[in-house]
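Board notes (copied after class):
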Amino acid sequence: MEASLGITKEDIGTEKISISKFNETCKKQVMRYTREWEDLTEKMGYWVDMDNPYITYDNRYIETLWYLLKQLYDKNLLYKGYSIQPYSPAAGTGLSTHELNQPGCYRDVKDTTCVAQFRITRDTKSEFLYRNTDTYVYFLAWTTTPWTLPSNSALAVGPGITYVRVRTFNPYSYAPVTLILAKDLLPAYFSEKHAELDIAGYEAGDKQIPWKMLEEFRGSRLEGIRYEQLIPWVNPGKDAFRVLMGDFVTTEDGTGIVHIAPTFGADDFKVAAKYGVPPLLVTDKNHRNSPLVDRRGRFIPIADLDEDFIKASVNVKEYGIFAGRYVKNEYDETLKSDDATVDVDIAVQLKKENKVFKIEKQVHPYPHCWRTDKPVLYYPLDAWFIRTTSLKDNMIRLNDTINWKPESTGKGRFGKWLENLVDWNLSRSRFWGTPLPIWITEDGSEQKCIGSVAELKKEIDLSVKVGFMKSNPLEDYVEGDNSAANYEKFDLHRPFVDDILLVSSKGEKMFREPDLIDVWFDSGAMPYAQIHFPFGSLSPNPSPNGAGRKCTPKYQTARNSKDALLKKLA
């Protein structure tokens, strides 16, 4: 929609276009292909009432969604949390895991990957790693997203994994180095026959690089060892840059050592929080802390940072080269497919500084946004979640009672999805859709979840009494009248619902949470919302049997279809 209007998401709610005008355009767009849909439905012989279709933007449909959300809220199954979530910079909103599991969302892409060298700080704890060597000692950590390396604040190893110390030479700088990596992954980086070469006889530029294994030990011995910041653009604060234990670390690929950027990975976020390692955050001009990459997918421009923060924590000379650049070229419409990427430029910089051991292009699956076809980032978000994990065991049990045909449908893709179920990220940072019916005080101490128009009307009356609102926009709404005319007296969409202020039990103002809900909740709730459950049956037009009574819907079948082929098939 933004593209058709020649705007970006950032333009909505500004002088370019108001939220109300944007949403009105969206509403018209919803019905744009009605004729084509009805034609296809008829040709398919799809059994549906086309005279009185359900429409998800109808206030009655929204009211049912609000009712269902309140049921979840009252059962403590709807909550607000802060975590790393799939996020689409192009769409400007978070995504749920099931959105990423749609066919075609994961695609094979060819990205620049690198194995970075993290120089170990020499002290009492790390002294055993410097024993019998004449070089600096480095941890090797592999990443498919070099743009996250400036946000690194820890490394993770597996406590039970066997690691080795190897004396060799860097293949780019030819500098002598001693490296730490998992023993099982030695063959990925070192040829067995080169272990026989004389290290003393190596000359810079030799293609055959000698190496020697000095020692092996368990990962548990590495806990707490400190290392130097790889890319010192921003100082994250105290207690960063140390080795942590992680049960998610494997030796399937990489080096057996995981680079941890707490702002851009779910495992990273959890393990850093567990060990008290700070994420790398910056302070913007509005004095808000945020990741080094903004929600548009750019390294935050220096002009957008707080001046005091810049003076205290930013290496302007180094960071200025990358500030403002998009971490994925797809986010920048001015870039071409063959333009250099941030990943390449970071890898080249590390190569010059003797901080990378291997750089290569690699094909790997990467998630894309189903709305925009552009790459997704994993990003820290405040979001509202449905606590689906609390029902996980029961859903798995019930799934096992279903006689799936073919069996692989339920036991395979769907069964695996249930086994790996996470809480549903429900909220979306958008403008057109069903608003989240939750109001919160400014300090976050009190919340209200609204489950019906009648309930909202009563709450607004209280707000009018204390002077927070001048009048009640639902004043003419009649409870119990389910007609279209009654529900067309108001609009539950943004921006109108955003203007509603409620009053807390302490007499404080309550503001609506600005997010919308996932469109897949809209779709999934259709069996309830299409009949305006539990408020009464829909009667969009006067019934021939009397107003308010349910008519028999005119279902489309192959037999009564106007299409000759379908009649023949019938």
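Comment from the instructor: The longest strand covers residues 106-119. The longest helix spans residues 59-74.
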